[in-house]
């Protein structure tokens, strides 16, 4: 039986010349699931990420080397944070011999919280996305989806008793110029809401949450404005978008609002 051919003896079709004179803005891989470590105040947290990695392809190049994306990501062992994702982008561009690229890493992020009255501990999950874009220089974006409670001021004002409330999904996308943990964005969103959420509540906690929301009504417009003000106070954030979708409890539609500040969304 003949020995397998060596890799360096096989033709490299991707590196051949293309004559159609069309550059490609993004070429690479998406939908790759991979275990990762994420930096937290308490240390590194394990998670599983959905990964997208692309580079710009010049008109004369026929294709990019898809396997190199996976090699770069697998070899990256540092927990994900502001500096780590920038380093990963730099490694990707060098390995793919590219000058432009984009890296997107989506994953669930968990934070341990204590219930407001009983103090019972539980994990709360959030959606986190790191995005790094590199054209002239790297741009690092941190996106968090934070579930909260909002209570309608109008309903409270016109009702003899009670007021309708809803669970809201706040989405913050912040452009960072320095290290900033996801907890900072979560904190801004939760402090602006009628009330924050917890994974586990006892009866005294449920009483607190109900009354806290009733005493702190917010329209969806109030919510995004208050969050925007909170983000403007963070020195590491130099641009952002904030949006909220309130899943209405008395309507068959959502209420929605969005603010974009110094940010190309």
Which descriptors apply to this entry?
6 helices, 8 strands, 265 residues, eight-stranded antiparallel beta sheet, 25% helix, Urate Oxidase, single chain, alpha+beta
CATH topology call: Urate Oxidase
Strand content: 35-45%
Shape: elongated
Question: Can you summarize the main beta sheet?
Answer: 8 strands, antiparallel
Count of beta strands: 8
Structural class: alpha+beta
The overall number of domains is: 1
Low confidence ranges: none
CATH superfamily heading = Urate Oxidase
Can you write the helix and strand succession as a string?
EEHHEEEHEHHHEE
At the first level of CATH, what is the class? Alpha Beta
Subunit organisation of the chains: single chain
> How many angstroms does the end-to-end distance come to?
58 Å
Q: How confident is the prediction overall: mean pLDDT?
A: 93
Total count of helical runs of at least 4 residues: 6
Instruction: Indicate the radius of gyration in whole angstroms.
Output: 23 Å
Second-tier CATH architecture: Roll
Strand order of the largest sheet: 1-2-3-4-5-6-7-8
Percent helix range: 25-40%
């Amino acid at each position: 039986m003949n020995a397998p051919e060596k890799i360096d003896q096989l033709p490299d079709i991707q590196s051949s010349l293309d004559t159609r004179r069309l550059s490609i803005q993004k070429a690479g891989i998406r939908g790759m699931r991979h275990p990762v470590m994420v930096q937290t105040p308490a240390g590194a947290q394990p998670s599983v990420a959905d990964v997208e990695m692309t580079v710009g392809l010049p008109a004369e190049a026929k294709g990019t080397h898809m396997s190199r994306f996976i090699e770069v990501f697998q070899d990256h062992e540092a927990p994900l944070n502001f500096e780590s994702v920038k380093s990963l982008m730099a490694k990707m561009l060098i390995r793919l011999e590219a000058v432009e690229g984009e890296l997107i890493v989506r994953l669930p992020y968990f934070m341990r919280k204590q219930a407001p009255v009983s103090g019972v501990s539980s994990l709360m999950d959030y959606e986190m996305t790191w995005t790094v874009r590199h054209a002239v220089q790297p741009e690092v974006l941190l996106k968090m989806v934070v579930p909260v409670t909002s209570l309608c001021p109008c309903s409270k004002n016109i009702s003899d008793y009670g007021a309708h409330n809803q669970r809201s999904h706040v989405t913050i996308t912040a452009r960072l110029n320095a290290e900033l943990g996801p907890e900072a964005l979560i904190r801004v969103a939760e402090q602006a809401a009628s009330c924050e959420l917890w994974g586990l509540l006892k009866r005294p906690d449920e009483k607190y949450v109900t009354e806290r929301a009733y005493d702190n009504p917010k329209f969806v417009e109030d919510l995004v404005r208050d969050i925007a003000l909170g983000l403007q106070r963070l020195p590491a954030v130099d641009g952002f978008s904030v949006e909220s979708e309130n899943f209405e409890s008395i309507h068959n539609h959502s209420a929605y609002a969005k603010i974009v500040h110094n940010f190309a969304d």
